[in-house]
Specification:
heterodimer; A: Rossmann fold; seven-stranded mixed sheet; two-stranded antiparallel sheet; B: alpha/beta; Rossmann fold; five-stranded mixed sheet
Chain lengths: 271, 355
C-alpha cells in the first residue's frame, strides 16, 4: 500500500456519494507513515495532540520540541514548527524558545528516559522557573528506542533487558513518580496524570492537552501532563495485553487523575 | 573625542557584555564560573533598562541548550563560560553546529585539565579549533588580545554567525577577561538578517521549519556533512584574520595569539633592542587558521618560536602550515603562570642558537 491508499478510508470513493464522511484524521497530522509499533500509545498521543491544535486553531503559533527516544521523529508527524533537542534537554530548549517568543505556544514531548533520567535536572528547573510551556510526558516504563532497557519509571519487579530478573529496587532504585515530585514546586501550574488505553481515557487526555495549551496564555507556569502509556514490543505483549497491563499494574503505582489544578481565581482571566 | 565615541574603562568581561547589548543581542543564557562571572552580573544589572533577556540557567548543559532553542527561534543569542563549563557545553555545541544555528559562544580560558586553576591559560586551543564535541564540525574561532577586541569581536562574532549560520567562538582567557583597559564603543548600525528557517510558528505562507541534527539515513547525513564542508571551505576562503608586526625585515618569527601575543609583542621590541630582527605573526582567527601567510613567511625567516600558555597546541597548526620549511619550536608556561617578556626573550635567544 502506498501512503495515499493508507490514509484514504476504503469506503470513500471519489464521485461516490453513497457514504458520508464522518471522521478524518486531523490535517495537523502529516501523511508520513508512523514508525511506531502496532498498538503503541505514542500514535494515539500524537493524534489527540494534533486534534487539539487543529480544534484550537493554533497551528501557526505552536512550536514543538521533540526528544530523543521513540518519539525522536515526532516532528515528522505533526505539521507544525519543531525543534529536535538533545537527549534530556527538551525543556531547556523550550525555555530558550518561549523566552524569545513569549506569545507562541511551546510544548515538549518527552519519554521517561529523556525526562526522568538524563533530563531530570532540566525538568525540575524548568518547572521551578515556572516557564509558560506544556510538558507532555509519555511514561511507559521502558526504553523503547534502544529496545527495552530499564527506565527510571519501570515498575518494581519489571523484567527489562537490563533488569532481566526483574527490577530489584534495593539494587536499582525505585520507580520515580515525576508528577508527584514536581507538583509541589510553585512553578507547576497544572499537573495531571492521564492514560491512553481506553477511549474514555483518550478523551480525558485530550482535554488535559487542551488545558495545557490554554493555560499558557495565563503566564502562570508549567502545565505538566503525564500520559501513562504502553510498549507492546518491549513489554513482550500483544496490544490488548499491554493495555490490560496499564489498567492492572501501571495505574496501581501511577494513579490517574489531577495532581495539581489551577484555582478558579487563577482561571478568571481565561475567557 | 568624536561625538559617536563612548570611551570607558572596563574589564574585558564587562566590555564583552556591554558590546553584546549594543550589538542587539536578544538573549543571553549562562551559568556563573570564574573568571567570567562578570558577564552575567553585568547583564542582569543592565537588563531592567535595556531591551534584552539574561537568564541564569541551572548548568552550562542547560544554558547551551537554551541557546539552541533561542537561536532556532531566530533570536540573536549568546552564552559565555570558562574551561570546565565550556567542556560541559560541548554536546550542545555539536548539535548547534549540525543544526546550523547562528550564535556567539565565549570561553574565557582558565588552566586545566580538570577543575584546574582559575588563572589564565590557552589550554583549550585544541578543544576550540579541532572540534570539542563529537562529529565533523568547525567553529569560527576569534582570539582577542585586548579589552577593546573583546568588545569588537562580539559585534564581528554575531555578524559572522548570522552570515554563515554557524556558531562563532570567542576564545579569550582569564587575564584579558579580568583586566581593565580603555575601551571605545563606536555608534554602529546593527544589521539583523531575516531568518526564514527559524521556528516562529508555521504560518500558511511558508513551509514548516524543522531545527534538527538528526539525519538517520547515511545518504542524508553525508549530504549534510558535505554541505557543512562546503560552508567551511567558504569560511576558510573569506574569513582568515591575522596581524603582522615587524615581519617585513624579520629573520625570526614569533607566533602567538591572545595574551601570549601581547607578551610576544614586547619580546619583539626587546630583541630588536639587542639587534635581533624579530617579527610577530598573531592569528586573530584560530579557525580558519592563517596558514597561508605563515607558509609565505617560512620562506623568509630562519625559524619560528610559537609562544603559548599551554603545553604546545597551536604549534601543530604552525608546523602544518610551514610544512618543514623552517624549524618550529614551542615555548609555553602552564598552570596559570604568565611568563614575563624577559623570560620569553631569553628562551627565544636560546632557540635561535639552535638554528
Amino acid at each position: 500500500m502506498d501512503n495515499k491508499e493508507l490514509v484514504t478510508p476504503q469506503c470513500i470513493v471519489e464521485g461516490d456519494e453513497t457514504y458520508d464522511l464522518v471522521f478524518e484524521k486531523s490535517h495537523v497530522m502529516t501523511d508520513t507513515r508512523l514508525h511506531y509499533c502496532p498498538g503503541c500509545g505514542h500514535s494515539v498521543a500524537h493524534q489527540v495532540l494534533a486534534e487539539v491544535i487543529q480544534e484550537m486553531g493554533i497551528q501557526d503559533s505552536v512550536i514543538g520540541v521533540a526528544p530523543v527516544g521513540c518519539s525522536v521523529f515526532a516532528y515528522d508527524y505533526l505539521h507544525i514548527d519543531w525543534q529536535e533537542a538533545a537527549h534530556g534537554r527538551a525543556t531547556a530548549v523550550a525555555t530558550g524558545i518561549k523566552r524569545c517568543l513569549p506569545d507562541k505556544y511551546v510544548f515538549t514531548y518527552q519519554g521517561d528516559g529523556d525526562l526522568a533520567a538524563i533530563g531530570t535536572g532540566e525538568t525540575i528547573h524548568c518547572v521551578n522557573r515556572g516557564e509558560n510551556i506544556m510538558i507532555l510526558f509519555i511514561n511507559n516504563g521502558v526504553y523503547g528506542m534502544t529496545s527495552g532497557q530499564m527506565a527510571p519509571t519501570s515498575l518494581e519487579g519489571m523484567k527489562t533487558t537490563t533488569s532481566p530478573y526483574g527490577r530489584d529496587v534495593h539494587m536499582m532504585g525505585y520507580p520515580i513518580k515525576v508528577s508527584e515530585l514536581i507538583a509541589p514546586l510553585p512553578g507547576a501550574f497544572y499537573v495531571t496524570r492521564q492514560t491512553v488505553h481506553t477511549p474514555n481515557a483518550v478523551r480525558k487526555t485530550k482535554k488535559a492537552i487542551e488545558n495545557g495549551f490554554k493555560y499558557q496564555k495565563l503566564g502562570k507556569g508549567v502545565s505538566f501532563i503525564e500520559i501513562v502509556s504502553n510498549c507492546p514490543s518491549n513489554w513482550k505483549m500483544t496490544p490488548i495485553q499491554s493495555n490490560q497491563f496499564i489498567e492492572n499494574e501501571m495505574l496501581k503505582y501511577y494513579p490517574v487523575g489531577d495532581i495539581k489544578v489551577p484555582s478558579k481565581e487563577d482561571l478568571k482571566e481565561l475567557k | 573625542m568624536e561625538q559617536n565615541e563612548d570611551i570607558r574603562l572596563m574589564k574585558g568581561n564587562e566590555a564583552m557584555a556591554e558590546a553584546a547589548i549594543q550589538a542587539g543581542m536578544d538573549a543571553y543564557f549562562g551559568y556563573p564560573i570564574t573568571p567570567q562571572s562578570e558577564v552575567l552580573e553585568y547583564l542582569t544589572r543592565e537588563m531592567p533598562n535595556r531591551n534584552f533577556l539574561a537568564l541564569q540557567a541551572e548548568s552550562e548543559v542547560a544554558s547551551i541548550n537554551m541557546v539552541y532553542g533561542a537561536a532556532g527561534a531566530g533570536a540573536r543569542v549568546m552564552t559565555s563560560s570558562s574551561s570546565p563549563g565550556w567542556s560541559l557545553m560541548q554536546e550542545g555545541v555539536s548539535y548547534i553546529a549540525s543544526a546550523q544555528l547562528p550564535c556567539l559562544l565565549v570561553n574565557v580560558n582558565r588552566g586545566g585539565p580538570g577543575l584546574g586553576t582559575i588563572q589564565p591559560s590557552q589550554g583549550d586551543y585544541f578543544q576550540a579549533t579541532k572540534g570539542g564535541g563529537h562529529g565533523d564540525y568547525r567553529l569560527l574561532v576569534l582570539a582577542p588580545n585586548s579589552v577593546q577586541e573583546m568588545a569588537d569581536f562580539v559585534f564581528l562574532g554575531f555578524e559572522l554567525a548570522d552570515k554563515y549560520r554557524n556558531p562563532v567562538l570567542m576564545l579569550s582567557d582569564g587575564a584579558i577577561g579580568q583586566m581593565m583597559e580603555k575601551v571605545v564603543f563606536h555608534k554602529r548600525e546593527i544589521n539583523k538578517i531575516p531568518k526564514p528557517w527559524a521556528t516562529t510558528g508555521k504560518t500558511p505562507d511558508r513551509e514548516r521549519s524543522i531545527i534538527t541534527s538528526l539525519f538517520i539515513q547515511p545518504e542524508k547525513m553525508e549530504k549534510v556533512n558535505l554541505e557543512l564542508l562546503k560552508k567551511y571551505d567558504e569560511i576558510e576562503k573569506n574569513e582568515v584574520r591575522y596581524e603582522e608586526i615587524m615581519t617585513d625585515d624579520a629573520d625570526y618569527l614569533l607566533v602567538a595569539y591572545g595574551l601570549s601575543a601581547r607578551i610576544s609583542h614586547k619580546v619583539v621590541l626587546l630583541a630588536r633592542e639587542r639587534g635581533l630582527k624579530v617579527g610577530l605573526l598573531r592569528p586573530i582567527t584560530l579557525w580558519p587558521f592563517p596558514a597561508g601567510v605563515l607558509n609565505k613567511l617560512a620562506d623568509k625567516v630562519k625559524g619560528m618560536l610559537v609562544v603559548e600558555l599551554n603545553a604546545g597546541q597551536m604549534i601543530e597548526d604552525v608546523k602544518l602550515a610551514v610544512n618543514g620549511k623552517v624549524k618550529v619550536e614551542h615555548y609555553g608556561r602552564m598552570g596559570g603562570i604568565i611568563p614575563s617578556p624577559e623570560d620569553v626573550e631569553e628562551n627565544f635567544e636560546k632557540f635561535i642558537k639552535t638554528l
